[in-house]
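Long-time lurker. I teach an intro course on protein structure, and each term I like to show students one example going from raw sequence to a predicted 3D structure in token notation. This year I'd like something fresh instead of my usual example. Would anyone be willing to generate the tokens for the chain below so I can use it in lecture? Attribution to the forum is fine with me.
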Amino acid sequence: MAVSPAALFAALATPSRTTSPSVVLGRAVVVGGSVAGLLAARALADRAESVLVVDTDGPDTGDRPRHGVPQGSQIHALLPGGLAQLERWFPGFTEEAVAAGAYLAPVESRDIYVDGVLKVVGSTAAMLNGSRPFLEARIRERVLALPNVKTISARVTDLVLDGDAVTGVHCESEGTSAVEHADLVVDAMGRSSRLSEWLERSGWDRPPLRRMTVDLNYATAFLRREEGDPDRSIILALNSPANSAEASGAMVCRVEDDLWMLMMAGYRDAKPGRTPEDAVRVARDVFPADLAAVADNEVVGEIRTYRHADSRRRDFHLVDRLPARLVAVGDAVASFNPVYGQGMSSATLHAACLAEWLGSAPDLSRPAKEFFALQKVVVDAAWDISTGADLALPHVDGPYPRAYPIVRWAQDQISEASVHDSVIGRRFDNVTHMVDHPSSLAKPGTLARAVAVNLRHRLRSKR
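-- Reply from a regular --
Happy to contribute to a lecture. Here you go:
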């Protein structure tokens, strides 16, 4: 009997899912040492005799942004689904991160506004606040403490192939070349991955690439916390497309070193928050007062900007001809509009897919089609969430899913109701937080309740 995507997603996302470690391969090489690569290394550590992480930045970056992560200085969200997976892989991670300076953000310390209206409480799951380099450093520390994992600083330039299988990678470091042999190679090079070019150059099929133009502009700043600041860990304000001409959203969250991180985002020609003066002006003109109060604080360091041109995914599950002993994870497979905060949480679930696949004792002499089929469930879930919302933006013009007008109507009903109704809010949050599969929102009872909530709210608003 076929297992539904929702059931597979639930199994993969279960934080208590454990298997007894057993070695099924000798040496694994992970190309890229960002969050996705580190988590892949953690999953591999239970199944490989040894794991080598090859990264251009090396292990000594500490809490500083890495050159290989151009968006690393921007605000990041660790969604409850991702935090639960980190606790699965690294028991006690949350407690250790808080002891090192992170902030646990319970539901009562979070305010979320949509078009200036404070949302009702939905999910009560806690979130963990910290800058991306800070959280990544904690993950790296735990991974490299494993006895069978090590890392080197080098640039991978190509695959090594022998017949129908990948057997290693070519590396360059300080003017010297070397080959790192492997029984399994994991591409974790991010959205700029060169794996497709390497495959095509060697006569293999490259995965189809899908893109959705987003044209998002980000600006992020660190601000000093000051006496009298709002007693909140997270303040998030979102504007619907009709109200987002100057700014589509802003967020402040408390992070390490007793600082705030402030993010502002806009689409196309809207580039809010690129100077302290503009950040204060936009906060006062566009967003709620408690967020504006934080935006007026002293800026620490430079304001960092970033442009996200498009969301993209490489559909490895559609490739007919792939060499054996090769998989890909993280943004190398799919990267989404960062407004939705799915990146790190998706990476944790890709690691869960890797663990599930290796736990089935796969035949490594054959292409990893079973792995990519598992991963597709996670990628589809995140892709549906982000692109479904992005299609509502006036400048985004497809590609549209089948029956899009009906899908859009249903999404709008549930999104609107989540602002006013805690039951719909909790179900909506569980999906956007990557705890539940999006199909859970398609149940007739959920949609019927959302429609009823919206009708009641509109009637009250007219009185």
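Some talking points for your students: The first strand starts at residue 25 and ends at 31. DSSP finds 13 helices and 18 strands in the chain.
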